[in-house]
Write a sequence for this structure.
DNA sequence: CTTCTAACA
DNA sequence: TGTTAGTA
C-alpha cells in the first residue's frame, strides 16, 4: 500500500508536468475540465499532480495522437475517483513534503518511480525525462 | 500561477 | 472537437 500512496501523492506543479508530458498548461487544464485527471490543489488553489496524474496525461497524449477523442479516452481509462480522493486528502501534507524535498531528491524519486515501476512503458516516458535530467 | 470567454480549424 | 489567445 506504500506504493499506492507514493503514486497518488500530489507533488508536481503544472510547470513541471508541462515539461514531463510536453503538454501545454491549457491542454492539461482542458483534460482536467473533462475529468480525465483530477489533480489535487494547494491552499492557493494551484494544481499539484501525482505520479498517477502524470502517467494518465501521457496516456491521454498518446491516445489523442492516435486520433482518440475525449469520450473515447474516458471509456478506455478507469474513471477517476478513488485515487483522486486520496490524492486530494494527501494534498496538504504533500505540499509540505514537496517543499522539503530537494531537487535532486525529487529527480531521484521520479526516476525510480517511472523507470523501476514501469518496464513496458519506460521507453515512452524516458524521452520526457530528459527535461528533468538536464539542467 | 489561476480563471474566464471567445475564437480558430 | 481539441486547442489556443487574451484577459484580469
Amino acid at each position: 500500500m506504500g506504493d499506492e500512496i507514493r503514486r497518488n501523492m500530489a507533488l508536481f506543479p503544472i510547470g513541471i508536468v508541462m515539461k514531463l508530458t510536453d503538454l501545454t498548461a491549457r491542454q492539461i487544464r482542458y483534460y482536467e475540465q473533462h475529468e480525465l485527471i483530477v489533480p489535487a490543489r494547494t491552499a492557493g488553489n494551484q494544481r499539484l499532480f501525482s505520479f498517477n496524474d502524470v502517467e494518465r496525461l501521457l496516456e491521454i497524449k498518446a491516445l489523442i495522437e492516435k486520433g482518440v477523442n475525449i469520450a473515447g479516452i474516458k471509456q478506455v481509462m478507469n474513471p477517476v475517483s478513488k485515487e483522486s480522493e486520496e490524492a486530494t486528502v494527501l494534498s496538504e501534507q504533500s505540499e509540505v513534503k514537496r517543499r522539503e524535498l530537494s531537487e535532486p531528491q525529487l529527480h531521484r524519486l521520479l526516476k525510480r518511480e517511472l523507470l523501476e515501476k514501469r518496464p513496458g512503458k519506460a521507453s515512452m516516458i524516458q524521452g520526457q525525462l530528459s527535461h528533468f535530467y538536464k539542467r
